[in-house]
Each structure stands twice: as C-alpha cells, then as structure tokens.
C-alpha cells in the first residue's frame, strides 16, 4: 500500500491531519534517540557486571541480574509494565547493534517505532548477509503498510532469507505451545492458546461457521458473542450443545503450495491464507491429509492469479473464490479482516453500471463496506489486481493483491521458451517427407 499526500489546501481538517502526521514523524525521530540512550544505559550496566546479591538458593547469572535490574529500573522510571519495558530494551538494542537501516529510517521519521518493534522481533536468529537483506527489505515494506500487516511480510522475508532452517525453526517454535489465562475486569478472563498456525486458523474457522449457522437460524446474539459461546461449548462438551447448532462441522483452512515445493525441488514457502508462510514439512503434512485440491494457474511473469471468464449476472461461487484468492483480506487500507468474513463488493457500484466481473469485485469487511457507501472514500480497480483508494481528505493509497505467488525465475522462463522454440523448428527427415507432394 503506497501513500501520496493531497495537494496543499487551507482546509483546516486537512491541515490538522497533516499536523498529526508531522508529529508522528517527530515522535519517530525521538524514538531513535531513545533507542540509542537505552542501549547506552544497557552497556554502562553491563560494564558494571552486577552479580547476584542473595545469600541462599540458586544463584542468578550476571546476565540475568543485569537484565532484571535494567527492566525494573526503566519500568519504574517510565511507568511501563515490565513486559513493555522488555520490548523497548530488546527493540532498542536490536536497532542499534544489528539493524542499521531500520534505525536510520526511524531517525529520519519515515518508519514508526511500532514498525521497528515488528522488524526487530522477527530479526532474531538472522545473521550476516541474511540479516542485512532482511533489514533493507523490511525498511521499504514498513513505509507501505501498518505494523499488523508488516508482521506477515516480516515472516515471509525471514523464510526467504533462510529457507533451509524453516523446519528447524518450526519445530523449535512448536516447543513453545502453551495455554495461559489472564484476568480481566468484572468477572471476565482471557484464555490464550499458542499453538500451530494451521490448527489455530482451523479452530477459528470452525467457530465462525458454527456461529453463522446459529445466526442464520435466527439466534439474536451477535456473531462475536456466538463465536465465543460455541467455542466455549465445544471445549467444555466436545460437541456443541446449544439448541440449533449444527453438529459435525469441522474447521477448514486454505494453503497455497507451489508445485515445485510440493515436488521437493523448490524452496518457496507455502502460504497459509490469513497467516502467511509456513514451513515445508507442515505444508507437506497438510497436503498429504487434504480432502480436496484445486489447481490455480498463475502468470509466470508476474505471479498474478489468472481469472476465469464469468458469464453470469450475479457473482458466481467461482468469481467470489477468485476475488478472495487475489485479496485474502479486506481491501480497505490497513484492514486485516479475512476475505471469507467480508462482503463481496462491486468496486464500481452495480447501480451505476459496474459489471459483475472479477475485475470489479473485491472483499470489504461489513464495517468498511458501510464506510465506502456512507462516506467520501472512493475506490478504483486498476486492472492489475491493485486498487486505488482515495480518502475524504484527498490522501491516495494503492492496495496491492496479497494472493500472488512469486514470479518464475527469468532463467527458467528463458529456458522454457528456448526449448519450445527448438521443438517447433526441429523437423526430422521422415516428418519432412510426409508433406512432400512427390
């Protein structure tokens, strides 16, 4: 998603918006200064080599004492939680010591601290050329998307930087799976389940479809409440016991696996829709257990998913599925609602001549669908799967398709073209005689 400033205007609303953006730039620059100061404090404390002062029990290492002292000190001084202080320290030291391009971008005010946190978190484990490449690529991406969108792109860049370690890293991450409970206010609590991404997405999909069935049957609860209630019911009872709930529904996920990766001769990561790249071993297991397959053709030059040729007046299931493949999430800038949970919108209103064709269909979340129709937000399809969105203040954003595979390597395309040309021009003596009139 790219951003362009509107023409200079005396409109006070636009001026106020521009001032907010300018303040964010100043905040980013100060954040870079803060990162350097945090790192200096850490280094000064490290030189002091603090030791465990206890007189009994297990002895803490100097490194652990150093970290706890720094975190507790900063947490009290800045009135942060220790968790947020740890994020501040880890991000600061990563930027100063390992991510010079990101630090420079933050210092220039073009990348926010929130983006820097995402970049630093996913840089863990990268070194040498892989780290330098990751740093330079993520800085560019951070100027185009919000931090939540950057999370997916960061995971993808890590896969590109070190594809050989994907399985090892996935196995290591699987070892951290856990459940924990956090208290909330007024008798509520939060249950967090950290597990494998395909399983989490399948759980969420099953809850959503069970809730949708109840909603269709007339249940007055909101979809959000229904998803919580049916999932709670499932966990406590094994199968839904809510009257009207459909039994036997299972979670469904979508995984795009490049053919060469499936054959074991390619390194491009498989894509779990709504999450991003997953390791080859997990992809292979999912495809081995898959109950259905669909072959999707992509343009080898651009990686763009090729459209079908629709003829029906209303959007067909194929058209809707195609639009969701091209845009796995709502196309409103910054929105991350999965396309399966979004409305299928005619970008150019059908009432004003917009055709029911793939080039005029795009997913919009229910809320953003209303925003499009009730505000001055405008959307235009550009014919290459990108959309241009213009805000009421005149800011312009380009929304790029996420459902796209990497283009085939140029060398492979040239080799295939050369082979095809050779086959067309090579004629044996017998073939030549077949056309001879004598």
Short description:
With 438 residues, the chain is an alpha+beta fold. It has helices at residues 12-48, 62-78, 82-98, 100-108, 113-123, 128-142, 147-161, 166-174, 197-216, 223-237, 259-262, 280-288, 317-326, 366-374, 410-425, 429-434; strands at 2-4, 178-183, 189-194, 255-256, 270-272, 276-278, 343-346, 361-364, 378-381, 387-390, 396-399. It has 16 helices and 11 strands.
Which features characterize this protein?
alpha+beta; 438 residues; disordered C terminus; 3-stranded antiparallel beta sheet
Describe what this molecule looks like in 3D:
The protein contains 16 helices and eleven strands. The protein has 438 residues and is an alpha+beta fold. The chain folds into four domains: 143 residues, no CATH class; 60 residues, no CATH class; 34 residues, no CATH class; 124 residues, no CATH class. The N and C termini lie far apart (66 Å). The C terminus is likely disordered.
- Element order, helices and strands? EHHHHHHHHEEHHEHEEHHEEHEEEHH
Category from helices, strands and their pairing: alpha+beta
Q: Name the shape in a single word.
A: globular
Give the spatial strand order of the biggest sheet. 1-11-10-9
The number of helical elements comes to: 16
Beta-strand percentage range:
5-15%
Q: How many beta-strand elements?
A: 11
The share of residues in helices is: 40-55%
Rg (CA only): 27 Å
Kindly, what is the distance between the CA atoms of the first and last residues, rounded to a whole number of angstroms?
A: 66 Å
Low-confidence stretches: 308-313, 427-438
Query: Mean pLDDT score, rounded?
Result: 81
Major sheet summary line: 4 strands, antiparallel
**Number of structurally distinct domains:** 4
């Amino acid at each position: 998603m790219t951003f362009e400033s509107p023409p200079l205007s005396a409109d006070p609303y636009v001026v106020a918006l521009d001032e907010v953006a300018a303040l964010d730039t100043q905040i980013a620059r100060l954040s870079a200064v803060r990162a350097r100061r945090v790192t200096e404090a850490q280094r000064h404390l490290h030189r002091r080599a603090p030791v465990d002062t206890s007189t009994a029990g297990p002895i803490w290492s100097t490194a652990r004492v150093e970290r706890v002292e720094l975190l507790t000190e900063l947490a009290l001084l800045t009135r942060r939680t220790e968790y947020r202080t740890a994020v501040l320290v880890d991000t600061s030291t990563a930027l100063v010591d390992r991510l010079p391009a990101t630090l420079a971008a933050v210092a220039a005010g073009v990348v926010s601290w929130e983006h820097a946190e995402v970049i630093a978190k996913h840089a863990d484990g990268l070194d040498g050329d892989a780290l330098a490449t990751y740093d330079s690529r993520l800085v560019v991406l951070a100027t185009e998307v919000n931090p939540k969108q950057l999370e997916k792109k960061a995971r993808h860049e890590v896969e590109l930087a070190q594809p050989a370690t994907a399985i090892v890293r996935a196995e290591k991450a699987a070892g951290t799976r856990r459940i924990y409970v956090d208290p909330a206010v007024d008798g509520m609590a939060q249950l967090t389940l950290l597990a494998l991404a395909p399983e989490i997405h399948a759980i969420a999909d099953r809850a959503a479809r069970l809730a949708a069935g109840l909603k269709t049957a007339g249940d007055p609860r909101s979809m959000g409440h229904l998803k919580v209630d049916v999932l709670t019911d499932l966990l406590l009872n094994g199968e839904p016991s809510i009257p009207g709930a459909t039994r036997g529904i299972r979670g469904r996920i979508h995984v795009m696996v490049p053919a060469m990766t499936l054959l074991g001769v390619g390194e491009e990561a498989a894509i779990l829709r709504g999450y991003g790249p997953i390791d080859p071993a997990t992809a292979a297991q999912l495809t081995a257990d898959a109950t259905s397959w669909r072959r999707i053709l992509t343009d080898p030059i651009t990686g763009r998913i090729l459209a079908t040729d629709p003829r029906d007046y209303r959007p067909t299931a194929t058209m809707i599925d195609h639009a969701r493949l091209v845009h796995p999430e709502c196309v409103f800038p910054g929105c991350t609602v999965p396309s399966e949970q979004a409305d299928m919108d005619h970008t150019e209103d059908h009432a004003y001549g917009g055709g029911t064709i793939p080039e005029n269909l795009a997913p919009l979340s229910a809320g953003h669908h209303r925003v499009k129709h009730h505000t001055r937000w405008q959307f235009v399809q550009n014919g290459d799967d990108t959309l241009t969105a213009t805000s009421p203040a005149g800011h312009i954003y380009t929304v790029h398709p996420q459902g796209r595979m990497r283009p085939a390597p140029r060398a492979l395309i040239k080799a295939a073209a050369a082979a095809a040309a050779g086959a067309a021009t090579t004629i044996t003596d017998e073939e030549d005689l077949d056309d001879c009139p004598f």
